[in-house]
Design brief:
686 residues; 14-stranded mixed beta sheet; four-stranded parallel beta sheet; 35% helix; globular
């Protein structure tokens, strides 16, 4: 199946580029605002002059045609200057993630640049002893100011415009040509219909495709780009900027859209038959502009379009977002890839031909962008970008509905193989979302007892229901399996439930399946209702595990008692101590040895179980080792104390600092672990 959207502007050879398009606007409207960033704001004329000066500086530094220049800074106005300067100098730009230094270092390792443009504050975190050639943007300002403000010769401009990094768990570099960057802009322009009066705000990090390729939507159409002045965007600063700077177009991801358009009391439906749930990912009790009398908060008066990309957006979620916007404001669900510079397919509720009875399982990506083509080969999406070329396999699945709209069908890499069966988690997750208490769901296969995989459903609630604790309506495993009884085969029903406040997501806004917390290994009698492997797992319940641990602790305790007589002879001698005190001391020695045995067992078995509590690996490791120390330390400590002379102050001090102080530290770590606010985690079900 092939679905395309043709345009007379695409598919023809052109010498035009995004930077030439920007330069025409700078020449025609030099006083118009180009970058809005508080005190760092720039007009088109100022932005063009500063970019020209930096371009000449790069050329003086020996930048070759298509030479890679990495840019890493929180100061997004200077980042835009640097991007344009690299293009003017004939180089290739790439934007680094400075919010996550490890990611930035990985990006530099994947694509070593000719030079790194950054500030001193970021250099130490990015240049991890690699000896990179660095131009400090702040320190070079005085030198750059002496450079010409006229643009370099156009002949210097290379073939590759940008090297973009994907937003998934694995860092991957994707080159974009000048032709593709401009074609993507023109394709977006036919859908967005931008004007020079528009002010665009992109909420995602600048290293992601939405910004690294999406800056053209403003600066190649004469509009203004609203950016953060000196720090990453935060939800509150985004709302303030939209209101203060009269932003008309917002580019964001599903979580960003939820935080911006927080649901509150008010009408829900915006399309015939689409009755949305409250949106997952929003903070309860805070509202924004609405259609028809809902809570207003930030008015968003200038807003005319919101483009949501980066993750799957279900139809009921899109309707909930749309219901919070004023009449006439467009909201697009955009499906695109880094390889196509963010183009692919788009959908808005107005494309629906009629009522929709069950919006929860549907994620519609609509129709291709102008100039793009979508091919479905065995259900997999192949995208042909607006500038032509070979179709690009996306690894995503879709289906063409009878109304001509494309429906998202999940990702090939997410498919699960259990007991010889292939399970499509997207289909199962979409069905689970039909439960009225569930806002979002991920189904994953995790190891159970004896390394037997089992299906686990990770559930997050629909937020924003006033007066109701978040997650109060999430089902337990019995309720979920009953709900799925007549909808999916028995072997595809989850065996456990983990209830979360919100699903973990990657930098690009997609659900992060690799970051899911591990559930408790215990399987209750309510959990397993199968045969074969799952029936065998049911025999290994909490009672059996407790028996194994208890027996192991007793065996190791006996070993510790024998070692006591060998290592500390006489330390447990109670000769001369009258009854019942001698008996009580013997019981104490026994408990010390058993605690040591439990500590040894916990050293090898406890960490995996603790990871399921969702505290993160570092804190979990610290708490795990602290618990081990709290259990094992009493046996050697007490024996050393019993053999130490009371007046041997050096030995007494050594024992205090070797044992007592670490015990206090370990207890403090465990207390912090136990009381730390798990913002994303509710509990692990059966």
């Amino acid at each position: 199946m092939t679905q395309g959207s043709e345009s007379v502007r695409f598919g023809k050879p052109t010498t035009d580029t995004a930077v030439l398009r920007f330069e025409r606007w700078a020449r025609d409207t030099p006083g118009a605002p180009a970058v809005i960033a508080g005190a760092a704001s720039l007009t088109y004329g100022q932005l063009d002059a500063r970019a020209n000066q930096l371009a000449h500086h790069l050329l003086d530094a020996g930048l070759p045609a298509d030479g890679l220049v990495a840019i890493g800074t929180h100061r997004q106005a200077e980042l835009v200057v640097a991007v344009l300067a690299v293009l003017k100098a004939g180089g290739t730009y790439t934007v680094l993630d400075v919010d996550a230094p490890r990611t930035g270092q990985q990006q530099l390792a994947v694509a070593p640049p000719f030079v790194l443009l950054t500030h001193a504050a970021h250099q130490a975190r990015l240049d991890d002893g690699r000896g990179l050639r660095v131009i400090r943007l702040g320190a070079a300002a005085a030198v750059i100011a002496d450079r010409p403000t006229a643009p370099p010769a156009p002949s210097r401009r290379g073939v590759t415009a940008a090297l973009l990094f994907t937003g998934g768990a694995v860092t991957r570099a994707v080159p974009l040509s000048h032709a593709r960057l401009l074609a993507a802009h023109d394709s977006w322009a036919e859908v967005l219909r931008p004007t020079p009066e528009d002010r665009h705000l992109i909420t995602t990090g600048p290293s992601l495709t939405a910004f690294a390729a999406g800056w053209t939507r403003a600066l190649c159409s004469g509009g203004a780009l609203v950016v953060a002045e000196s720090a990453p965007w935060k939800p509150d600063t985004i709302r303030q900027a939209i209101d203060t700077d009269q932003v008309s177009v917002v580019h964001t991801d599903p979580v960003g859209a939820a935080r911006l358009l927080l649901p509150g009391p008010g009408p829900r439906a915006t399309a015939p038959g689409v009755i949305p749930k409250p949106l997952t990912g929003a903070d309860p009790g805070r509202g924004t502009g609405s259609a028809g009398g809902g809570s207003t908060g930030v008015e968003l008066r200038a807003l005319r379009l919101v483009a949501v990309t980066g993750g799957r957006l279900y139809l009921d979620e899109q309707a909930a977002l749309q219901s919070r916007l004023r009449t006439g404001v467009r909201l697009l669900n955009v499906y695109g890839t880094t390889e196509t510079a963010g183009t692919g397919a788009w959908f808005e509720l107005a494309q629906l031909p009629g009522p929709v009875d069950d919006p929860e399982p549907l994620s519609l990506i609509g129709t291709p962008f102008p100039g793009c083509r979508v091919d479905l080969r065995d259900g997999q999406v192949y995208l042909t970008p607006a500038d032509g070329g070979d179709a690009i396999p996306t690894g995503d699945l879709a289906a063409l509905r009878g109304d001509g709209l494309l429906a998202f069908g999940g990702r090939l890499r997410d498919r699960i193989t259990l007991d010889g069966r292939t399970i499509d988690p997207h289909r199962l997750e979409s069905v689970i979302r039909g439960h009225e208490g569930v806002g979002a769901a991920i189904v994953a296969a995790v190891p159970g007892f004896a390394a037997v995989p089992r299906l686990v459903a990770y559930l997050a609630p629909p937020d924003g229901e006033p007066g109701r604790p978040p997650g109060a309506g999430l089902p337990d495993i019995d309720e979920l399996r009953d709900f799925l009884a007549d909808k999916v085969p028995a072997e595809e029903r989850p065996r456990a439930v983990v209830r979360l406040r919100t699903l973990p997501r990657t930098r690009g806004g997609r659900e992060d399946r690799e970051a899911l917390p591990q559930p408790a290994q215990a399987v209750s009698r309510h959990t397993v209702r199968g045969s074969g492997k799952y029936a065998a797992a049911a025999d290994t319940g909490p009672g059996a595990v407790s028996a194994v641990i208890g027996c192991g602790a007793l065996v190791l305790g006996f070993v510790a008692r024998v070692l006591t007589w060998i290592i500390w002879p006489g330390s447990t001698d109670v000769t001369g101590i009258p009854l019942p005190w001698a008996f009580l001391f013997q019981v104490l020695y026994m408990f010390e040895c058993v605690a040591f045995g439990l500590g040894v067992l916990f050293l090898f078995s406890g960490r995996r179980r603790m990871l399921g509590m969702g505290h993160g690996r570092r804190l979990t490791t610290a708490a795990h080792l602290s618990i081990v120390y709290l259990l094992v330390a009493w046996w050697p400590q007490d024996n050393f104390y019993r053999l130490a002379a009371k007046q041997d102050w050096p030995q007494q001090a050594a024992l205090v600092y070797v044992f007592n102080i670490p015990l206090m530290i370990a207890a403090a770590i465990v207390a912090y672990f136990a009381t730390r606010n798990q913002s994303h985690l509710f509990d692990a079900g059966d």
